[in-house]
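Marked as duplicate of an earlier ticket. Keeping the data here for the record.
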Amino acid sequence: MFKKRTNAKEAKELFLNSFQPFLKIENLPIEECDGRIIAENINAGINVPHYRRAAMDGFAVRASDTLGAGTGSPVILRLSDNIESGTCMRVHTGSPMPQGADAVVMMEDTVLNEDKVEIFSQIHPFKNVGEIGEDVRKGEIILNEGRMLRPCDIAVLASLGTGKIKVFKKPLVVIIPTGEELVPRNKKNLEEGDVYETNGLMSAMYIRKWGGIPQLLDIVTDSPEKIKEAIISNLDADMVITSGGTSVGKRDYVPAVVGSMGKLLVHGVGISPGKPTALGIINNKPVICMPGYPVAGIVALFYFGKSAFRKLGRIPDEPERIVRAVLSEKIAGRTGYVTYSRVKIDNGRAIPLATMGAGILSSVSKADGFVIIPENIEGRNAGEEVEVVLIE
């Protein structure tokens, strides 16, 4: 069917090595930067805290004045507005340390009697005191370029008084659904052969979920000219995903169009479902040609699209979410193919779902994840413990 079936791992490496991450940067308020990728190292402009502060509610003291204090032998200090030998001052968490004080006795270790404070705990200098720069020191790198920001990171930026930072722009991904049989979802009366468009919608939602900006086009008919026109008109995007038209039928023009416009790297991959996947480069931009069958399409999107998207947008890799379960029945693999078998997890069991139907979209919706069978293994047996890569 194809001139060459490329090993799945080799196809991914070839594809990922064929383009570079982009360098588009924007300056945004930190409130808008959750999940964004930092475009430069961020240095602290101030110390945090910028003053010595009490770390507990209690009384600021000279630590030497608490010498010998214990549960049965309290030291008595006088409440005062100044710190000197034999005096103490009331402080609250975060309040500035009084001049002359070097420690704080916790409220729980004291008893207040009018202007006298009984101290029941001996403490050492700097106890319960936050020193200048204890949290962040001025000039230090607090966040490195390439980090994906979390709310706690943004809180650190806020503690420094940071207003805006430079982040990499979100990749713009154009998605082109193709096929004579496809009809928009607002068509009410389906005729024989009509199929509602779903792959483009699904791809757009995953791109958004992964942190990109999807641009879903209207359905393009099976015409080389129309497909080429759709791609040319959207080369301002950072990445192109097409759906359908990748097999070897009379109306499967997409790989040839990609090859005529740039470089077709791969057509035919050792993954199942997903063999008709094609990968290419146009104007130094990655192009993924997903098969039209929805399950084959989602496998191609997950296997190639997610990795390519993350490289393009400089998004750090993250490990797959994996759980272990026991197979309820045997599942078969295909020699020479990495096989993605859909399974549902129920009380520690992995139950296969329509494992051979590349067009059964509902099986993915019903599934919790995939059991991935390597290309050199014939399958997995019932009762075998397997890893399930979760879809979400």
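See parent ticket for discussion. The chain has four domains: 8-23+170-312, 25-48+134-168, 53-130, 322-390.
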